[in-house]
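**Tokenised fold:**
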Amino acid sequence: MNAPAHIEKSDLSANPAERLMVMSADDMQAVNTIILDRMQSPVGMIPDLAAHLVDAGGKRLRPLLTIACARLFGESETAHHKLAAAVEFIHSATLLHDDVIDESDLRRGREVANRIWGNSASILVGDFLFARAFNLMVETGSLEALDILSSAASIIAEGEVHQLAALRNTSITEDVYMDVIGAKTAALFAAACEVSPVISKRPQAEQEALRDFGTKLGLAFQLTDDALDYGGFESALGKSVGDDFREGKVTLPVIRAIESADDTERAFWERVIGEHNQNETDLERAVSMLRKSGALDQTVDLARQYASDAKNALEIFPASDWRTVLEDLADFIVERIS
């Protein structure tokens, strides 16, 4: 399928995320209308707090993926719009809960909701958004789509608990880390992509291909985020640089650095992560050690491999502007580190 006629040449030369937003503009207007309508409540704090996060300027990548995957085979109906809105509600709910757990200051460049309304309100509004997501899933009438997204929601929660259990543990393995990011990030990417062919009753091979695409894209996304945390720009990351370090999260860059560390370096990581005893210069020292060890480069290289695998998963689909923008998006997600 060719790009819609109203897209200008300048739009097609923009970065893939922006191109995808332009190509999906009509669909996303319908999705946004659903989001705005379903986050309303007579309890004023609910729409106020939800709007603070939902309107914060994020690209809504996950619902965009739901729409783009539908367009790969030429379809985008009301059911796809509802599922895309459900995906965004699930994501927004997890962000509200995450910010309480992580004690972050910024989300998408704005003060986190729990700093304004408090932890209890953020958790409860997150629960409200989860409920709205399930309302939308049920309205599509697809038990399979409901199963995919509800399973993703439970897997995300398991991933977050797993990450919490591993907090400040400098002995966790790379396998454990990959399990965590596969659950807390890649699961929703996969579900967002898979529900489109499911709701359209596409062949099993297409469903599996898009689930694989979403999984690999989500892993590439999280690996890049974890590298960005040690030297990216807040505009690219969407949160404060160094948050993972300050919270004591053991991500792949740290795991790789510890593997090649000498005794002095291991003592540093145990102090700042394991004991959570940090001073003002420790983040700068950590970044220096990660660069010197090659851990950041190794993390980005792995992200690039997953991005390549994601693109390969799309080969089952005929060439089209939609396939091209999804392939380009996989590369762009990793190149945010540049």
